[in-house]
Amino acid sequence: MVAIVAAAILVVCLGGAGVAFAYLNNITSNFSDGIDGDLRAQLVETDLANEPFYMLLMGTDGSAERAESAEYAGDPTRSDSIILARIDARNHRVTLVSLHRDTLIDMGEYGQNKLNAAYAIGGPAMAVETVSKLAGVPISHYAEINFDGFKDIVNALGGVEVDVPMEINDEDAGGHLDAGLQTLDGYQALILCRARHAYDDYGDGDSYRAANQRLVLGAIAKKILASDIGTMASTVEALSEYVTTDLSVFDIIGLAQAMQGLDPSTDLYSAMEPTTSAYVDGGWYEYTNMTAWKEMMSRVDQGLPPTTEDVVDELSGTVLASTGSGETGGGTDSSGGQTITDPKTGNIAIRNGNGIAGAASEAAAKLEDVGYTVDTGNADGFDYSQTIVIYNYANQANEAKDIATTIGVGKAQLNDGTYAFEGDFLVVLGADWG
């Protein structure tokens, strides 16, 4: 997506032959600063204008503010955002799959590490190698942008129009955003792309943040495709200063010409790596759900959307996955897409936490009627005042709410590491049962 953004802008630079050629060569030099032989050795050659290819997009936590802060002195730059993009220029299709930065990966001689550590340990080359192995696909190109650059690029475009799914109050991300359709400047767009704690009551903040990052990337692409030549030209300097990519300007121009006509509302597919969260030894990790992941990547590799339907969180309005229906655009009204409704084929552990005889069996019968496999027993005590439905993974939030609705009582709650159970969900019946 970064390459497409750059491409649409750089096409306008071909106006004057001699001057344009020198200018483009200078811009190419800026783009390739930091691209070394180790990275190029990891990239697989492809005909980018005529066949689908994969590109790794990295958003790093490098910025002037961080460089000047004593708090981060000596810390390596890490990849804060990781997106695997499949770009099909001939069919005008782009697929963005976000990867959890906390995904636990076996990094060989470096042991078990979170995915974002690959960049810190071995730079772009190791990041490409690690993501390629995880996804099971060859990666042909690479692009990286830091926080400073993100702000300047959006500002150079005069802001981008985004339907912010819900009100954001997150000091760690930079402040406040109102909900609804609005034009965001660079700083505001960065708040939306960094916000995690605003979603603490909804589920895994990284999933929501990644969804918003994809939303903003789509808005940037839409703005560029609709921009006049002057606006496009004013953006190229910001791109060349802050974007690092192996693509030359001339590669990018060819790609841009091939991608003309792309409509982000229908030609942009998106989703996130399916994982299960776990709290281990004082830290949170994401464990890839390999069956679902392989199925998702098989769809992506065939040019299909990563999921079979749009996935919209009904409480926050956040689009967690898009099939290019053109209907999911953010906002609290989720009527444009379907909420999470996974087939009722999972396993649920029900524990009696109120001491009412037969309570667990009654709840189990309701859930078995809709297809679940249920295991019953007693909780660690009978002093639970409220029924809770515990889930481990953010994309299970809506199904947990459906479970509460099915049994007629309960509050969905993300597991903070307190509850250990086998199966997909844990239901602890409280005094509000019956």
Notes on the protein architecture:
With 434 residues, this protein is an alpha/beta fold. The chain contains 14 helices and 21 strands. The strands form seven sheets. The protein has a six-stranded mixed beta sheet, with helices on both faces. A five-stranded mixed beta sheet has the order 18-17-21-19-20, covered by helices on one side. A hairpin with a 4-residue loop joins strand 2 (79-88) and strand 3 (93-99). Helix 1 crosses helix 9 and helix 7 runs antiparallel to helix 8. It starts with a helix and ends in a 5-residue tail after the last strand. The relative contact order is 0.13. The model is unreliable at 2-19, 69-74 and 328-342 (pLDDT under 50).
SSE layout and pairing:
Layout: H1 2-10, H2 17-32, H3 37-42, E1 53-60, H4 64-68, E2 79-88, E3 93-99, E4 104-106, E5 112-114, H5 117-135, E6 141-146, H6 147-156, E7 160-164, E8 168-170, E9 175-177, E10 180-184, H7 186-194, H8 205-225, H9 229-242, E11 243-245, H10 249-259, H11 264-267, E12 268-272, E13 275-280, E14 283-288, H12 290-301, E15 311-312, E16 319-321, E17 347-352, H13 359-369, E18 373-378, E19 388-391, H14 397-407, E20 411-414, E21 425-429
Parallel strand pairs: 1-6, 3-12, 17-18, 17-21, 19-20
Antiparallel strand pairs: 1-2, 2-3, 4-5, 6-11, 7-10, 8-9, 13-14, 15-16, 19-21
Look at the helices and sheets and give the structural class: alpha/beta
Low-confidence stretches: 2-19, 69-74, 328-342
**H/I helix tally:** 14
Q: Please give the share of residues in helix.
A: 25-40%
The gyration radius over C-alpha positions equals 23 Å
Quaternary assembly? single chain
Estimate the mean pLDDT confidence: 82
State the end-to-end distance.
Answer: 52 Å
How many individual β-strands? Answer: 21
Strand content: 15-25%
Q: Describe the strand arrangement of the main beta sheet, using strand numbers.
A: 11-6-1-2-3-12
Bulk shape: elongated
- What profile does the largest beta sheet have? 6 strands, mixed
